[in-house]
Amino acid sequence: MLHPILALIIKEFLALLKDKRSRSVLIGPPIIQLLIFGYAATYDLNQIPFAVYDENNTVQSRLLVDHFVGSNTFELIGHITRDSNIAPVIDDKKALMVLHIGPRFSDDLVAGKNVAVQVIVDGRNSNTALLALNYVRNVVLDFSVEWAQAQQHPPLPAKLEIRAWFNSNLESQWFIVPGIIGLIILVVSLLVTALSVAREREEGTFDQLLVTPLRPVEILIGKAVPGLIIGLIESTFIILMTVWWFEVPLRGQLGALYLGLFLFLLATIGVGLMISSLSVTQQQGLLGAFLFLVPAIILSGFATPIANMPEAVQHLTLINPLRYFLVIVRDVFLEGAGVEQLTAQYWPMALIALFNLTLAGWLFRRRMY
Questions:
Q1: I need a labelling partner for 312 at 20 to 30 A (CA). Which of 137, 153, 281, 353 fits?
Q2: CA separation for the pair 262, 92 (Å, rounded)
Q3: Cα(357)–Cα(271) distance, rounded to whole angstroms?
Q4: Which residues does 94 contact at the CB level (< 8 Å), separation at least 6?
Q5: What angle do CA 110, 114, 118 make, to 5 degrees?
Q6: How far is residue 300's CA from residue 264's CA, in Å, rounded to a whole number?
Q7: Domain range list for the chain
């Protein structure tokens, strides 16, 4: 039994490597997606362009501006001299925000009064605006503390001490890059298996496969194992890139990560085999794969938290294997989680994998006969 299945597995690998489209799916997209998402997909703001409207123009006001310039987060693009210049700077997207310092800034500051500083921010992108305002708040707070200490004024009534667990510098790459492992493996494993049977039908070799002594379940295993092996190899490469290139710490158990990866691959391979069983051509297989990919990524929590989704949609995410794998990979990398802490993620993926593979086997036998 094992020898015919092994021969079919070798045949699948040879077909994948000889086919230009399949070979390009295996090599090109994983590397491109890793680099694009690793560097371009970020929640951080760097070099925020801002303009200054300083009506006070004193040592104290310039000291506040210096705090913004020296923070390595803000980039000063110029000074504004009148109110009418504020709108064009924001409207033309020359600056994300304008820092407006009033004429009584230094007098109120020296007198120990509450000082108001106006920040006019471009709110067309609400997430970017909120992040920029958070950075502004931190800079102004640092300025206030330093001024109070230098002038021997009473300290601020309350000082916020922030400590972020698991990601002390709050680098968004540490959150995004581990999630890319699940995203890329989903794409690769799904496409490899979705094209397998469809390629046989398109090339006219499917009938030859039917006259072999192999039973339908053995053919299904022979089609599934190459996707599993390729997924494990590519995921190992991406994990190494995540640790050594992007310098994301791997704090948890490697075995816990690979157990989740194995279950995740079984679940996605089951979906790919279902699509392949229903497809007559490779083009149909590709369309079917992308029809599944987009909702799976959106409903996984990769970009937006599942808790923020409508309740009905949250229930729909429970059948998405990528949802569980993202929790596993991020918990292993950042929280140092082990197998015991991730049991609640393993068993739903195992059930999804069992259902998908069973349904794929049923569809495969139905399409054969």
A1: 353
A2: 50
A3: 8
A4: 49, 51, 77, 88
A5: 105
A6: 13
A7: 2-41+171-368, 48-150
- pLDDT, tens digit, 9 for 90 and up, residues 293-311: 989 999 998 878 888 888 8
Angle, vertex CA 45, rays to CA 44 and CA 49, nearest 5: 175
User: Cα torsion at 42, 43, 49, 51 (round to 10°)?
Assistant: 180
Which residue type, as a one-letter code, is found at position 334?
Answer: L
Q: What is the pLDDT of residues 174-218, one digit of tens each?
A: 888 888 889 889 988 888 888 777 777 777 666 666 667 777 778
Residue type, 116: A
The structure tokens 């979705």 sit at 194
Q: Which stretch of DSSP H or E encloses residue 128?
A: helix 126-150
Phi and psi at residue 102, to the nearest 5°: -70, 165
What is the rounded distance in angstroms from the CA atom of residue 190 to the CA atom of residue 184? Answer: 10
pLDDT, tens only, 309-358: 888 999 999 999 999 999 999 999 988 889 999 999 999 999 999 999 99
Pairing of strands 117-121, 48-54: unpaired
Which residues lie closer than 8 Å to 132 by C-beta, 6 or more apart? Answer: 45, 48, 96, 97, 121
Specify the pTM.
0.78
Per-position b or e across 47-85, b if 16+ CB within 10 A of its CB: ebbbbbbbebebebbbebbebbeeeebbeeeeebeeeee
Residue the block writes with tokens 């601020």 = 156
CA atoms of 297 and 312, how far apart (whole Å)? 17
Which residues contact residue 363 at a Cβ distance below 8 angstroms, ignoring those fewer than 6 apart?
Answer: 273, 274, 277, 278
Which residue matches tokens 């994998």? 353
The single residue listed with the structure tokens 């102004």 is: 140
Can you tell me the distance from the alpha carbon of 57 to that of 338, in angstroms, rounded to the nearest whole number?
57
Token pair recorded at residue 133: 């305002």
CATH architecture of 48-150: 3-Layer(aba) Sandwich (3.40)
Distance CA 219, CA 5 (A): 7
